Fold each of these.
Amino acid sequence: MLTLLKLLKDGRFHSGQALGVALGISRSAVWKQLQHLETELNLKIHKVRGRGYQLAAPLVLLDEQLIASRDSASWSAMVFDSIDSTNAEALRAIERGQPAPFMVLAERQTAGRGRRGRKWVSPFGENLYYSLVLRIDGGMRQLEGLSLVVGLAVLQALRELGIAEAGLKWPNDVLVGKRKIAGILLELVGDPADVCHVVLGVGINANMRTADEVDQDWTSIQLETGRSVDRNLLVGLLNAKLQAYLARHRDSGFAAIQPEWERCHLWQGRQVSLIAGAQQVDGVVLGIDQQGALRLQVGNVEKHFSGGELSLRLRDDS
C-alpha cells in the first residue's frame, strides 16, 4: 500500500494500468489498495475516467538519507511509516541498547501522546512527529529546565520559517496567539542522579489544514504562512536549533537561558489559573526561576510551581 503511495506522491495522474504494471498486480488490486489509502490514511484521491488516479495534493515523505544530508548534528534517525508513538519507540530502543543520541520519526502515530495523557492527533504525512534520545551523564543539573530549552529551540525554528508571532506557554507549548502549533513531552529513564536517558518528544503541526479530532484551538505552519513546508527541511532546522540550545544548556546551565525564555513567554504578567488535579491556584505570572519552575504572585506571596501534571490557563478576566 505504501509503495503505491510513493508512486502517487508527485500529485500527478497515474493510470490504473501503469500502477498495476509498476506494482506487479492487477488493476482491481490497485483499486483495493487505493481504497485502503483513503480509509486507513485519510488521504483524498481523485479518480477521473480516462486519466487515472491523483492525490488531492502532492506529498513529500520523510527521507532518511535527505535528513542525514541536512543534519549538522549528525544524529542517526529511524524513520517509520506508522508507529504507536515516537516516544514509545524511543523508549523501546533504549531498552534494546541503541546508543544515544538518535532520533525517531514517523509519518503517522496511531497512539500519539501529549502531556497529562492527552491524545496527540497524528495524521499521515502532514506533521512532524519527532523524538530525540540523549544520554545524560552527571546528574540533575543537566535536566533543569530542559523541556523549556527544547521549547525555545522549537520556537526559534518556527520563527525562522516566518511565524514571527509564535511564543511560549509554560511549561511545554508553543502558541501563535491562543492557538497551539507545537508541543513537547519529555520522558526519563534511568537514575537522574547518575546516568539516565531522556526522550525529547516534539510534535509540530506542519501542513495540517483540518482536524476534527483536535479538542483545542490549533494552527499549523501552512495555515500561518500560506505555504507547505518540507518536513525533511524542518527536521534539519529543528536539529540545528536543538544542538545550539542544548550546548548552551550543558555549558552554562538553565540560568543563562532563563531571561530569553521569559522574553518569549506569551503569558508574562497575565492572570492565570494553575490546575493540579482537583486543586486550582489563581495568580499572576511573574516568570520562571533558575530551575524552570513557574513563579506566581498568589495574593501577597510569590510561589513556585513545577511538575509534569500541572496545567496553566488564562483567567477569564485576564
Amino acid sequence: MKEYSIGQMSRQTGVKVTTIRYYESRGLIPSPARTEGGQRRYDEAALERLAFLRHSRELGFGLDDIADLMALAEAPSEDCAPAHEIARKQLAAVDPRMTILAQLREELVRMAHVEDPGHAGECRVIEVLGNHRLCMGTHDLSDASANLSDN
C-alpha cells in the first residue's frame, strides 16, 4: 500500500499543507497513521478525498456541503437526489455572483484604461477607489459571497 507524506499530498493535489491539516481537524480527511517520528502518512483513499475536496472547493462548494457530498460518495446505494439539490443550491449562489463580477470587470476596465498624468494625486484608480460614487454601478460582493461561504 502506497503512503504519502503531507508534503506529497500537497504537491499532488495543489492543496496547501496548512489547509490539509485544517481539513483533517474538521474531519473531512481522516487522521492518518503516523510514523515513529510523528510524521503523517496518508493512504490512497485520503489522496482521493483531498482531490475531491479541492475540486469541490474550486467549484465554490462550502465545507458543510462537501461533507454531505463525501458522505454520499461513501454510500453508493443512497439516493442521488441530495447531491443534485446541493449542486442546484450552489448554482443559484453562483449566478448573482457572476453578474456582480461582470460589473466589477467593467469598472476595473474603465479605471485601468484612463490615461492619467502620472501623479498619484491625480490618478483615476486612486480617486475611484476612494469615492465609490464615481463607480458606474454597484458591485458589492458581500451579499453574493455570503452564499458561497464555508457554511
Amino acid sequence: MATISVDELSHWNRAVTEATEACHDERFPDTLIAAIRTLVPVESVLIGLEQREQAPTLLYETGIPSHYRERIIRRYYSRGYLLDPFCLAVERGLSAGFYHLSEVAPDNFFTSEYYKTYYLAAGAVEDCYYILDLSSEAKVSISLYNGLTTTPFDADQLARLRTLEPMIAHLAHRHWRPRLPTPPSPPHGWRLQDAFLDFGREWLTEREREVCHLLLRGHSAKSSARELAISPETIRMHRKNLYTKLGVSSQAELFALFIDWLSAE
C-alpha cells in the first residue's frame, strides 16, 4: 500500500474525530463517509441494515445519480436483492470485514444478466463492502462504488479501505447498535431463501429450481455442480429441461422472466 501522506493523515484525523463526535447523531453517516473520502475517492454509497431472514433496509445513500435511483433503490430493495451476492453471502453467514465484489461473487457473475442489469445498467462497475456486526442476527453493510464515468478502485485504494475496517466497525457499532430496531417476526417456517425458491414452483422440479436459481445468481455449470454435489453434465441436463419448461432459450430470457415474476409479486 502506498504511504499515506502527512496531509492525508491530518485530514483523516480531523474527519474521524468529527465522525466520533457525531455518533448517535443524524449527521453521523455524512461524517463517516467524509472521513473515508479523505483517503479514498468514493462516488456513491449505500448503507443498509441486513437482518437474518429479512429483506435489507436502506439506512442511508449518497451520490447516486437521479436517473439510476429507480433501478438501484426501489427495484433492488423491493426484491432484486434476492440475487445479490453480498446479500446471499450475509444470509449464509459471511463474517464481518471488508470485501470486494470479486471475493464473494460466483464464478460467472460478471457475465450474468444480474450484473448487467443491477450493476452496469445502474451505472456501477464494482462494489466493495464493509460488513459490520451489530448482533448475532443483524449487520450493517456499507457499499462503496464508483460509476462508469470514474476510475474503478485500484489495489492501493482497496488496501486503504481494508485497513480502515476496524475504525469503521467501531464507529458504526457505537452509532447503530443502540438504534437497532426489533425485527418483525417472520411467518412460521419462512426464510429469505424460501421466497426466492417460489420462482418456477408451478413448472419445475425441486432440483431444476435449485439449478435455475444458481444460474440466475451467476454460477457456471461447474460451480453449480459443486454447490449441489452433482456433475456438470447433470447440471446441463437440468438447465436444458428447465429452459424448455419455462419457454426460454438463454440466461438473458430466463433473467427477464424472473424480473417479470418479481414485478408481479
Amino acid sequence: MNLVQKIEHWGDVHHAKWLDSIRIVLGLFILSKGLAFISDTDAQKDWIIQNSAFEFSGLMALALVHTVAFAHLVGGVLITLGLVTRFAAVIQIPILLGAVFFVNLTKGFSPLNSELWLSVLVLMLLILFWIVGSGPYSVDQWLKGSRGR
C-alpha cells in the first residue's frame, strides 16, 4: 500500500458524518463562484489583464476565465454530490492557490480583506476533502454499496 492509498484509507475510515454538510456547502459555494465568473467574463478578463503579475493577451485572459469558470462549475457539482470528490478537490486546489497568492494578496494582508480569508478557508477545506474524501452521504458511497450487492 503506497502513501496515497494509506491516506485515502485513513480518510475513508475517519470521515465524520457532519463533514458531509460542510462538503455540500463548499461545493455549492464553488459552484456559485463559477456562475459568478461565467456571468461577467469581460470584467474578469479585463481584471486579469490589468492586475496580473504575468503578461496576458486578451485571448489568453479570456481562456483563463473560461477554464476557471468551467473547473468551478464542474468541480462544485462534483463536490456537492460527493462524486469523485478527491479528484474534484485536487482540480480546485491550484485555482485557489492562484486566488490566494496572485489575486487576494495583492489587495493586502489585513483583517479587512475578507476575500483573502475566504479563499484561504476554501483552500483548507479543499485540502481536507482531498484527504478525507466524499463521506457516507455521497454518490461515491452509494456506488460502493450498489456494487457490493
